[in-house]
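Internal QA ticket QA-208
Title: Verify multi-chain structure generation after dependency bump
Assignee: T.L.

Test input:
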Amino acid sequence: GESVGLHLPTLSVQEGDNSIINCAYSNSASDYFIWYKQESGKGPQFIIDIRSNMDKRQGQRVTVLLNKTVKHLSLQIAATQPGDSAVYFCAESLPGQNFVFGPGTRLSVLP
Amino acid sequence: EAGVAQSPRYKIIEKRQSVAFWCNPISGHATLYWYQQILGQGPKLLIQFQNNGVVDDSQLPKDRFSAERLKGVDSTLKIQPAKLEDSAVYLCASSLALSGNTIYFGEGSWLTVV
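Actual output:
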């Protein structure tokens, strides 16, 4: 039968290009957001976080943008490398509440 | 700093059998979580502990799943009896405090029920 949930959104980018992974979050009162990277056979790995009092936060080769007006979060990866190939999850939390994870986006880096 | 440790990494059991997973969180982390991740989906919270007390187990199927953190450090998640739909990765995670803190995950325990 059909395997619901296996058809992750996939983003394919050329090595060296920039990647933008998008996430629509559900609750306008969410105040803390995290991006995780999950490689095959491994647990989710923290990449970068942002709180709702910020619009942008930069890390090493990664930038997270938060648009509270449209409840949208994005992760930008500069100069994408083969090692960036993974599934990326956004997670949101309300004040005092647990994180809720999005469905994930698979990033494939083409040589 | 050592990360979240989990064992076993892989387990295959027959339906109706039982299985137990162990987790040791990051040292000093008061909050411990067990998540279930079905293939192709994001992690789903099963249970959350603050020290040795349960904070949230609303999504834990209590007829077959149980978890404990008796001394407020290590934790065990048990499934008995297992069903085919329990095939998933069981992720343990920890954070410094209850909310507003980054959650750090272990590598997961991969369960296949046949």
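Spot checks passed. The mean pLDDT of chain B is 94.
Status: verified.
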